[in-house]
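Note to self: keep these together.
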Amino acid sequence: MQHHHTAFKADSFASGFILLLTLLLSGCSSGGGSDTADFGNSLPPASGPGDVENFFPTTIGSSWNYFATVTNPLDGAPAYFMDDVTVTGTSPVNGQIASVFEESNPSGSAVAISAYFLKNSGGLAYLGSSDPADTMTAAIVPYILATFPVTPGIVANFHKTGLDFGVDLDGDGINESANVSVTNRIDGFEPLEMGIGTFARTLKSNEAISGTVILSVSKASVLFSGSTTRWLAPGIGVLKNNQVITAGESTSAVTTVTDMEARGYVVSDGTNSVAHGLGLPFQLASGLGSGDSSLQSPGAPAVASDGSHFLVVSAKSDASAMQGKLMDSQGALTSTIALAPGTAPVAAFDGTNYWVVYSASSTSAAGCYAQRVTPTGAVLDATPVVLSASAYCVSPQRVAFGNSNGLIVYSRFNLITGHHDLYGVLVNLDGTVPGSEFPIVADGNDHLSPVVAFDGTNYMVAWEEQRPTALPPPSYTSYIYATPVKPDGGVLYTGGFPISTNATGQYSPSIAFDGSNYLIAWLDLRAQTGVVPPLHPDIYAARVSPAGLLLDGFLPTSSGFLISNGAALQLSSPYVSYTGSEYLVAWGSLDYGYAGGVQAARVSTDGTLPAGANKHIAVSGPPPSATTSRYVYPAIGAGSSAALMVWLDNAEMSGTQKGVLGVSVAPF
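Structure:
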């Protein structure tokens, strides 16, 4: 079943009706249609003020990409797909010079289709598409979608009878016929909130088609209707699209709903193009290990930026040589780098070179090591730098660089106390280690998943701290703590200070600095209603000043603000990055299907979400059902004008291979 969703085209409903009608033939009724033509079944007026606010961009090079959700009671679970539309040029169509909008993946079909539009000073008209199967739409074009100036009201209202429906539904070798009525209108102007942001003024339009399909043998008919509502922003085009298709009558009717939201778009003026938001996902690494359910093998990928390029590092399930890839600002591969064998890599840039910090293989002696890589891909440390000869370092964001050195933090198991202490080691930019590893917190509790960032003066280290509860052992609750650490290794707050200590628990922190304050995000169980796993955490975050002042809720028992309500999902592995003007918080899920996809939310430096809590951006789309994958461990490398987000494709089916996927991120 196809629904065509090019940027502002009149969606071709015919192919969407075919499947529904086939399933509903047993509920046929008699029917017919009128043969009156009203207005709008034509080209727009030749004169007018034009599209002054540019709600309907047709400049070559402009493009949009969308995430779509399709619900149909006949299909059970919702279906999902990504689609993109690009203005590729112009073409003569029925005596007119039309703008060509090429759609790469209509309804997830992977069969590209072009749609044709005429935009002049008087308005916008749909001229048809390249879909040879859509005979019904071809018989009623051209028709008007908007007139200029754009004002609320009906712009087209007409009827057609005896159209070729394009499909033989009753098996007599003759295509069925259809009677249709079309009404296009401009509803008005309204604000729009969605994952990629809040738009103060969008144009809301609606296209409706209804009628009957008449069977050639029995002359029985089936009612159908379709409606597409679009929201268009000035200078951008369609940001959101809601299509509803219904076939049948009363209790036998079946309705399919398709919701599409833009993830990103490119605005072109004919000479220059400016990208906004997310691009389409692409593969960065493959063959990292045979499919299985282990999320630790090969574990999280790593990414860092030197400001204009990116280094992506992937481990392998067999802990053999890690693979590094240098990417340009558009995410294109420039070189591949062979690194040392290891697991759990993390990458960071020290202002001159990249650092790749990793653990030894779990099958060999413990150890935490590093290799430096130049921006051109040369490995400077053929013999890796030893950071700790006796401790693994496996937490995300465990590396940060300051003005003259770097700090690597990790948990180290204490054989005497039986707990995990929090340690750090300082490194010089020349690859030397000036001293020994040192304890940051060692107080008899467990300190896990440490992360670190630098504020221009000190480092800030945050971690998950497990403390025993009043319940019988081994019951404990996890809290989020932090402490500043000076560049010489001095710990400013012994034992740290609380970030979030609600009694239900919180864990897996992530941290970034925006030039004034830190943002720390974590998984939070304050809304958890069940006591039996799996847990369904929310994602919360709080701003923290360099001095350790909580800026979003002064009491750590209730601090922070909601980013994502996990509801029935097992949200996991949040990751915070500052992209130069705002934070981007990404997370994965331990669920499968769409629930296993990577999502993200924008957070302003004042601690607000531009689109509101639970207004998310679909980063990855759903994992393919053929692999039974989970998409986990997102990581973000932010440059001066773009970022790259990567995540693990944890394929689990026998015969499949795990890999790393990524997506480019431009300023929204």
